[in-house]
Amino acid sequence: MKQTKTVSELADHLGGVVEGDPDILISGLGTLETAGPEAITFLANPKYAAKVEQTSAGAVLMAPGGERFGHTAILVDNPYLAFAKLLTLFYTSTHEALGIMPGANVSDSAVIAEGTTIYPGACIGKNVKIGSRSVIYPGVAIYENAVIGDDCTLHANSVVRERCRIGNRCILQPGAVIGSDGFGYAPDGNGYYPIPQIGIVILEDDVEIGANSCVDRAAIEVTRIGRGTKLDNLVQVAHNCKIGEQCMIVSQVGISGSTTVGNHVTLAGQVGVAGHITIGDNVLVGGQSGVASSLPGNASYSGSPTIPHKEWLKSSMVFPRLPEIKKTVASLEKRIAELENRLNQISKEN
Amino acid sequence: MKQTKTVSELADHLGGVVEGDPDILISGLGTLETAGPEAITFLANPKYAAKVEQTSAGAVLMAPGGERFGHTAILVDNPYLAFAKLLTLFYTSTHEALGIMPGANVSDSAVIAEGTTIYPGACIGKNVKIGSRSVIYPGVAIYENAVIGDDCTLHANSVVRERCRIGNRCILQPGAVIGSDGFGYAPDGNGYYPIPQIGIVILEDDVEIGANSCVDRAAIEVTRIGRGTKLDNLVQVAHNCKIGEQCMIVSQVGISGSTTVGNHVTLAGQVGVAGHITIGDNVLVGGQSGVASSLPGNASYSGSPTIPHKEWLKSSMVFPRLPEIKKTVASLEKRIAELENRLNQISKEN
Amino acid sequence: MKQTKTVSELADHLGGVVEGDPDILISGLGTLETAGPEAITFLANPKYAAKVEQTSAGAVLMAPGGERFGHTAILVDNPYLAFAKLLTLFYTSTHEALGIMPGANVSDSAVIAEGTTIYPGACIGKNVKIGSRSVIYPGVAIYENAVIGDDCTLHANSVVRERCRIGNRCILQPGAVIGSDGFGYAPDGNGYYPIPQIGIVILEDDVEIGANSCVDRAAIEVTRIGRGTKLDNLVQVAHNCKIGEQCMIVSQVGISGSTTVGNHVTLAGQVGVAGHITIGDNVLVGGQSGVASSLPGNASYSGSPTIPHKEWLKSSMVFPRLPEIKKTVASLEKRIAELENRLNQISKEN
């Protein structure tokens, strides 16, 4: 995995411009504090600009116009993105195709494309289709008639239930569950009659599902996660939800049934969302908020129930002063009563 | 799985009454919007009554007295329940008994009843008992001396630890964990001494546990989930809890140790419940609420800490106006001081 | 497992002092209510002191100075800890070493120490090292180059990803995930470019991770859980966090990326912690709180955002009275306006 590149080669790879010595050899990456002379680092946040002066890094990724303090720099529009791309270049590699390994349980009717690895302990059901170059780790269970796209990674003990469809380049972290039964019951007087959950889940391309997160299958149609959307760990998406494209759903968020979430939405950690509502595009919801009704797009919200984020900040600042306010109101009440008495007295006297 | 029934046959199945043509052939189900002429739909919520006029469905399930707009109808007391029963009729089937499949690891001392399926990758420990017609999916681990009832479904990678007892017709969604060690430690001055958790979990009949939910074993006795209670995904039930019958515990709820929950209780999503308290029968707790002390039955609560739901609604409406209230109080204070001054002036003058 | 000891032997084991009959035979443990004459019980909380009178237990663990009501007692400084130690003595046993069992998948290059058990269905990757007397339950997946210490217990379907390091005497409850990819993406204009998460997780000695909890690997360095720290079920620890020693992280807590938590910190259930902040030593955070910024040590906090716990309690008591306060303020406003009018009238008249 260890390789060495010149600054010039890295600049070509990134579409960046070298300032300084293009021939410096780079064999790794580090932070401004930890990178040594054979490593490249990056400056993304201007507030750390002064740290560039002290860095021992061999080269620095920075935006055009930054002060390089005599260091060699590669100028790129998005230094953070460039750093991520170099991490990929230096530290990752395509998984070697190992085929169906001994100890894997694969149904005879499953169709497994070329370049795929299926580890021991994985179980692939009837009529499952798995695309090219996908990697299925130990303990993964794929139920009958499910479809997995190309270049997917299903980490250990993740589960895809019957008929669900996973797009290309999707990643399931360990323990992720796709297609568990939606939580639907019809009260029958005595208790709850379970409503068969006969729908499916569709993950579009480039979706990532975090460790131990759950996406329930629809009651009769489709629970859908849009292209490029990322779910962090321990997230719950209930049946019939439609999540848009390029959303960031942070850890421990829960989204109730039949809710629609637009594109480019960020739900911060532990947010709860009610069922049967709609969240508009480009919405940002602050951590632990409770979304009880539909939210118009292009705005930020916080609180439980949610209100515009700035208003929530202001009200939250007042919350710790409630005891004082209560006391003040009570004292004002007394002072007013006294004023009224005195004024009545004066009126009478006049 | 595909089958066709007459409206008359369906009415018999449901105990309903046909209005219109009893001989229409039905082969599936759909919503008022999506059902075609060979499908049956339902009207449960009167606010959608007008949609019946436009539906293309071959027949409609509705309550007696509804307007059927010339469509054939089956009159039933609970159209939603009837729809669920027809979903079961048309779209589900009993799992074929496949026995102990190759690749399953079953201890010689385990007792497996007839009609059961144990998929490859499942591991069944010593002296485990599994009832008739139960289905054990890949990757399920059942530890020694556990007991599983009849007609259970244990989905992939669910775990039942030693000596725990699962009733009849229970369902574990993928990744559910029954009998993990309770979180109990005795501080010993330096750190925490782990208290052996030697109790068990009992799931009574007809309990369902959602994907990746956890029910901890009791310290020395029993953590119990009552008959017919349903847990959604990612729910935590700590050691020694007693959950009553026919409860609905929605996703991401957490219940702390030694708490007792009555019958017919609904805890909405992300509710947290403190330890060593009691929640009465027929309680409804709103989403994200924090139950810090015992709650009398037959009432609704919200907030953290919880208060009666209606009071919480009212206080929540005031919360966004706190900055304004604070400002008003400050200005009132000034105006009162001014009034007092003026009145003192007048008093002096008189 | 069943064994019998005299009170005198138990006192020796605990370093306690017998009052009463040292020869009573004890073969089990129970609560003050449930223990019979062959069982020992304990009194830890003085408020239950009166229950000692009625207990049928053969002996009672209690602190010096307690009233034993004629029962035989073992006096110890910490009766709760002593009880836990006797639970260990009576009810637990070292797991018998079963070696690599048939149906386990162990890479040829893995190094497995003596006295270890690897159950069927477990998968051990290349170059993995597992220490002495560790127990690896069914369905556990350990990725390549991971290291597991001595005397560890990895329960069914837990996962340790590549290169992560687990100390000695660590416990992973079922479904726990160590080393899932951190949630890191660089926006690239269209969507999100995944940042390779090339770091690892280190669990120091005596760490316990609850069922279905997740600890993400660092982006480029280490996510660390300190010695003796216990995580309950369904906890999320994001990438690059440093959690100190002897912390108690209760169920469903979520800690965002790059946050540092001190030693002896307790985070109660469902607490959320923002990223890139620091929580000091000996902090206690109340259930469901939201820690939005760094917290100084040696204090208790609650609320979302957190404030000192006592202030939060007071403000929470006022919250239900907000509608009344709002009403009062409005009425005060009217009364003041009226006073002002009357006073203006008087001034004019004078």
Key words describing this protein structure:
5 helices, homotrimer, Udp-n-acetylmuramoylalanyl-d-glutamate--2,6- Diaminopimelate Ligase, Chain: A, domain 1, 350 residues, alpha/beta, UDP N-Acetylglucosamine Acyltransferase, domain 1, twelve-stranded mixed beta sheet
Describe this protein's structure.
Three copies of one chain form a homotrimer. The first copy, chain A, is an alpha/beta fold and about 350 residues long. The first copy, chain A, has three domains: about 90 residues, MurE/MurF, N-terminal domain (Udp-n-acetylmuramoylalanyl-d-glutamate--2,6- Diaminopimelate Ligase, Chain: A, domain 1, 3-Layer(aba) Sandwich); about 210 residues, Hexapeptide repeat proteins (UDP N-Acetylglucosamine Acyltransferase, domain 1, 3 Solenoid), CATH 2.160.10; about 30 residues. Chain A is about 20% helix and about 25% strand. Chain A starts with a strand and ends with a helix. The mean pLDDT of chain A is about 95.
